[in-house]
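Weekly sync, protein design subgroup
Attendees: M.S., D.O., the rotation student, P.L. (late)

Item 1: inverse folding check
M.S. brought a backbone from last month's batch and wanted to see whether the design step gives back something sensible before we order anything. D.O. pointed out we never logged the input encoding, so this time it goes straight into the notes. Structure tokens as presented (189 positions):
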């Protein structure tokens, strides 16, 4: 399995600091390239994981009602500017023939996709598609709401502006009443 090459990251970040005109011998920066390499190996650990492998089916269940995990915190890195975006994910699905997974497994799927250089729009669809392909539920809906530091620190320079994306699959796409039920559950406190 491939792994992050910390030596390359460390050498690359030294070049970034040199390009900025920084003094690499300054006490506060001496260990920074190494620290960034360690940080990046954690932040991008999802590159080497298969999200569907985090989902395990619960045996012997026949539950076929809506399951909702709401406001699960996450953070990721924008692939365009390598600045963080962070927020929360809400996931709902309706099992089919009792094919359900543990609630923690849903959170792990979010984490695997978040720990990659990513865009929120793709991440939202990837989570929904992974659930549909692995669990084969009646339907799933994924909503991500996040703040992007690339909007806060550069470009628009407006902090606190949330970006909301959704991916709707199966019964939630076909049945407005079911979709509305899930949305009201997510909005409730």
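Designed sequence read out in the meeting:
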């Amino acid at each position: 399995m491939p792994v992050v090459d910390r030596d390359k990251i460390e050498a690359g970040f030294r070049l970034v600091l040199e390009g900025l005109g920084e003094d690499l011998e300054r006490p506060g920066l001496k260990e920074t390239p190494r620290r960034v390499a360690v940080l990046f190996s954690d932040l991008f650990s999802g590159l080497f994981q298969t999200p569907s492998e985090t989902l395990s089916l619960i045996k012997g269940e026949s539950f076929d009602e809506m399951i909702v995990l709401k406001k699960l915190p996450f953070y990721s890195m924008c692939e365009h500017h390598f600045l963080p975006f962070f927020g929360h994910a809400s996931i709902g699905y309706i099992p089919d023939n009792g094919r359900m997974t543990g609630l923690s497994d849903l959170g792990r799927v979010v984490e695997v996709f978040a720990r990659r250089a990513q865009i929120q729009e793709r991440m939202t669809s990837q989570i929904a598609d992974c659930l549909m392909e692995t669990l084969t539920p009646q339907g799933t809906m994924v909503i991500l709401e996040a703040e992007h530091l690339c909007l806060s620190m550069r470009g628009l320079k407006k902090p606190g502006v949330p970006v909301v994306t959704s991916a709707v699959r199966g019964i939630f796409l076909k049945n407005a009443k079911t979709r509305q039920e899930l949305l009201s559950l997510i909005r409730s406190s």
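Discussion: The first strand starts at residue 67 and ends at 78. The CA atoms of residues 57 and 100 lie 6 Å apart.
Action: P.L. to compare against the previous round before Friday.
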